[in-house]
Design brief:
102 residues; 0% strand; 5 helices; Gar-IM; LciA_Immunity-like; globular
């Protein structure tokens, strides 16, 4: 198993656990399900992480916060994005690329 495969498996496990949580709002679960589908189709992991982050940021502003479960998931995903993003990637720019909810 390559390092990339291990990273994908870890990310998929985090997303699977998230979408199965019964305490999520419909929008929070929708973000997770769309991200899961993208990862299973082989979409670039950094792009998926970025879109998850952007989606939760927009949702948090619109709904004046996230559930505690989504907040914990957001923190995990953001840490993975920071760890795995290529050197020189502008995080501020990455956030404008769209949301799963738009």
């Amino acid at each position: 198993m390559t390092k990339e495969d291990k990273g994908l498996d870890e990310l998929l496990e985090i997303v699977y656990d998230f979408v199965l949580n019964p305490d999520l709002s419909d929008d929070e679960r929708k973000i997770g399900l769309l991200a899961k589908a993208d990862l299973e189709r082989g979409r670039y992991q950094i792009a998926v992480l970025n879109q998850i982050i952007a989606s939760f940021q927009i949702l948090a502003v619109e709904k004046k916060g996230l559930s505690s479960e989504a907040d914990e998931f957001y923190k995990k995903i953001y840490a993975l994005l920071i760890k795995d993003k290529p050197i020189g990637t502008n995080i501020g720019y990455m956030g404008i690329n769209g949301s799963y909810l738009s």
